[in-house]
Amino acid sequence: MKVRVHVMLKDGVLDPQGEAVRHALGSLGFSGVDAVRQGKVIELDLEDGTSDETIAEMCEKLLANTVIESYRFETI
């Protein structure tokens, strides 16, 4: 089974990469971009039947820094 994990910085955490992208878009002439948040997507190939609890444990222990990041995952 394939699982896609989406990791984003939590609200209130500074996002310097997102700010750099917002600034670059403005420099390229794209107006109206007020904010950009940048995250990451991780795709996993797992054995069929891997439990949501196991996937959440993977996220908590390695894939996301839960102090500053939130995550969600979906089976694809």
TrEMBL record:
Q: Which GO terms describe its molecular function?
A: ATP binding; phosphoribosylformylglycinamidine synthase activity
Instruction: Give the keywords, sorted.
Output: ATP-binding, Cytoplasm, Ligase, Nucleotide-binding, Purine biosynthesis
Give me the reactions it catalyses.
Answer: N(2)-formyl-N(1)-(5-phospho-beta-D-ribosyl)glycinamide + L-glutamine + ATP + H2O = 2-formamido-N(1)-(5-O-phospho-beta-D-ribosyl)acetamidine + L-glutamate + ADP + phosphate + H(+)
Question: Electron transport among the record's keywords?
Answer: no
Q: What is its EC number?
A: 6.3.5.3
User: Under the cellular component aspect of Gene Ontology, which terms does the record hold?
Assistant: cytoplasm
GO biological process per UniProt: 'de novo' IMP biosynthetic process
Spell out the subunit comment.
Answer: Part of the FGAM synthase complex composed of 1 PurL, 1 PurQ and 2 PurS subunits.
Function (record text): Part of the phosphoribosylformylglycinamidine synthase complex involved in the purines biosynthetic pathway. Catalyzes the ATP-dependent conversion of formylglycinamide ribonucleotide (FGAR) and glutamine to yield formylglycinamidine ribonucleotide (FGAM) and glutamate. The FGAM synthase complex is composed of three subunits. PurQ produces an ammonia molecule by converting glutamine to glutamate. PurL transfers the ammonia molecule to FGAR to form FGAM in an ATP-dependent manner.
**Under which name does UniProt file this protein?**
Phosphoribosylformylglycinamidine synthase subunit PurS
Q: In which organism is this protein found?
A: Ponticoccus litoralis
